[in-house]
Amino acid sequence: MKYLMFVCDDTEPETDESRVPDIHAWVAENDAAGRRITGNVLAAPSAATTIRVRGGEVLLTDGPFAETKEVIVGFDILECADLDEAIAVAAAHPMAHLGRLELRPYADL
Fold it and tell me: CA torsion, points 92, 38, 1, 105, in degrees to nearest 10?
C-alpha cells in the first residue's frame, strides 16, 4: 500500500538531539528495502504559490495561503505492507523527533 508522508516542522521539537536518528541512514535503509519510493525537502513557504479558480478567473497568491507556525518541509512516498509498517518507518524518521509526520494512504479512485 502506498502512503504519502508529509514531513512537517513543529513548535515543540525533541530537546535531546542525541536521540534523533541520522536522516542519511534512514533514507539509505528505506531506499534499500524498497519502502521509500521518492522524497525530497521543499523550498521555504515563502516560495509557494497558491492557485485557486473562482468565477472562471485564476487567482494566484504568493507564499503560503494559511498563516501557521507549522509547515510542510518535505515529503516521502512510502510503499508498505500496511499502516503498522508505515508507522514504524515514520517513527524511525528524524522528524518524528524534531517535527511531526503525517501519513496518508493513497485513495482508490
Answer: 80
Residues 51 and 59: their CA atoms lie apart, in Å, by: 6
| 87: three-class secondary structure by DSSP | helix
pTM given for the model: 0.86
Q: Which residue bears the cell 502512503?
A: 3
Looking at the structure of the chain, the number of domains it has is 1
CATH of the domain at 8: 3.30.70.1060
- Per the model's pLDDT, the better-predicted residue between 19 and 106 turns out to be 106
Mean pLDDT, rounded, for 13-39 = 94
